Amino acid sequence: MTTTDAATGSESLDPADWSGLRTLGHRMIDDMFDHLQTLRDRPVWQPMPDTLRGELRQSLPRLPRTPEAVYETFQRLVQPYATGNLHPRFMGWVHGGGNPVGMLAELLAGGLNANLGGRDHAPIEVERQVIAWAAEMLGFPTDASGVLVTGTSIANLIGVLVARSAKLGPKVRSEGAGGDRLVAYTSAAAHGCMPRAMEMAGLGRDALRMIPCDADGRMRLDLLAQHLDADRAAGAQPFLLIGTAGTVDTGAIDDLSAIADVAARQGLWFHVDGAFGAVAALSPKLRPRLAGIELADSVAFDFHKWAQVPYDAGCIVVRDQARQLETFGAEAAYLKRETRGLAAGGVWPCDLGPDLSRGFRALKVWMTLSVYGADRIGAIAEQTCDLATILAARVDREPALQRLAPVALNIVCFRYVAANGDLDRLNADIVADLQEAGIAAPSTTMVGGVLAIRAAIVNHRTNVEDIAILVDAVLAAGRKRVT
């Protein structure tokens, strides 16, 4: 497969004959298109047998194998046992379904092998365009800055770090937070990455006040005000207020306009975790539910959820680029900027986030939005919310089912009810039964102190028939277990 230069003895990873690899590449693309086209013919998910796991667990390969042999191993050991989020009845977690154009974009990006840490080249211009589109979606100013990252967990960490710098100034990069008792505030329903972001920022999870929610799953502003007053009286320094646009359990959206008002009056950085909910801004019907997001100082969200871009494609957008540069601007000699040549190009992405080595994930976002259009992506988000409404109505009609939370967007939490027994254990078993049977893949969570079956409808392939299959399967599995 590899070549050796006869004159110099140097090795290369390029093939001596490109025709064989070219043929295999075309076959891989055809096979993957077949895989996408026939998703409904296969189980949503299936467990990987231990014997096959054992085949993957090998020592470091020292000698080469043919690409054809390695591809055969992929087809046999990997492809059939993937997560399942391509399938229309994968509803367990907020995973996007990807799209075929984005898949091809990954091939193109891999072919270019561009490093988007910095310097002056077209792939960075593509990412700048994607960030500009994200800012437009959110209602941010045209000069807002941002960067693509692995996901909202890292994007939220960046939001915390920028807020910390905005409060303490650039000196925090050399001196640390020191004795400053910084405290932040968010909903008790916020994603678990928020406490972790506080940990990684060196502020500690105890400095994050998790404010209880109301019956609709939204942060209670009366209790927020009490915490702010108590912290200031105790000598702490409030610096960050985090709203949530689509909570992980139920999809609830905080009152972002009211939170923006509190942040402005209190002099706090207003950050929004919009991991999946921010994309609702592309739907005219859903956009009003995000009122106030345009007032945020920063917003974190994922293109790989509702926007259906293949993993991974997270994003952070910051209103004031100067704040982001104060937090991450690089000064190393080997990153010196020039006015001409490859080292030109203005602000580099490594000035806006922690990564210097960065892949060309922007291409799959750019191609997805360019091919399908933002309006169609917004329509998909709206469609999944309509399906959630249909699911909730079916749950409400079934005597054996109980809905456990309001449906704010595209997530429905419910459970199977029986006269006797441990209902938490029963519903956990029902979920596992459906997953192992390959019928559907909901997940579980806790709502109101009880275990819920959680159906998060994110995939653009999901339709009304899939909703019916899910409910019928839950009812059948429940009856089987209680009889």
Describe the overall structure.
- The protein folds into 2 domains: 114-372, Aspartate Aminotransferase, domain 2 (3-Layer(aba) Sandwich), CATH 3.40.640.10; 376-482, Aspartate Aminotransferase, domain 1, CATH 3.90.1150.
- Helices cover 41% and strands 13% of the residues.
- The protein has 15 helices and 13 strands.
- It has helices at residues 18-37, 50-56, 67-78, 100-112, 122-138, 152-168, 172-175, 193-200, 221-233, 256-266, 321-328, 362-372, 374-397, 423-437, 464-482, and strands at 3-4, 11-12, 145-149, 182-187, 208-211, 237-244, 269-273, 298-302, 314-318, 401-403, 411-416, 443-447, 450-456.
- The strands form 3 sheets. It has a 7-stranded mixed β-sheet, sandwiched between helices. It has a 4-stranded antiparallel β-sheet with strand order 10-11-13-12. The chain has a two-stranded antiparallel ribbon with strand order 1-2.
- Helix 5 crosses helix 12 (362-372), helix 13 packs parallel to helix 15 and helix 14 packs across helix 15 (464-482).
- The longest helix has 24 residues, at 374-397.
Stretches where pLDDT is under 50 for at least 5 consecutive residues are none
The number of E-state strands comes to 13
Overall, the morphology is: globular
Q: Mean pLDDT score, rounded?
A: 95
Main β sheet profile: 7 strands, mixed
CATH top level of the largest domain?
Alpha Beta
Distance between the termini: 60 Å
Q: Measured on Cα atoms, how large is the radius of gyration?
A: 25 Å
Order of strands in the sheet with most strands: 3-9-8-7-6-4-5
Assign the CATH superfamily of the largest domain. Type I PLP-dependent aspartate aminotransferase-like (Major domain)
Strand content: 5-15%
CATH topology of the largest domain: Aspartate Aminotransferase, domain 2
Domains counted in the coordinates: how many? 2
Mind telling me which CATH architecture of the largest domain this is? 3-Layer(aba) Sandwich
Q: What is the share of helical residues?
A: 40-55%
Count of separate DSSP helical elements? 15
Structural class: alpha/beta
| String of helices and strands | EEHHHHHEHHEHEHEHEEEHHHEEHEEH
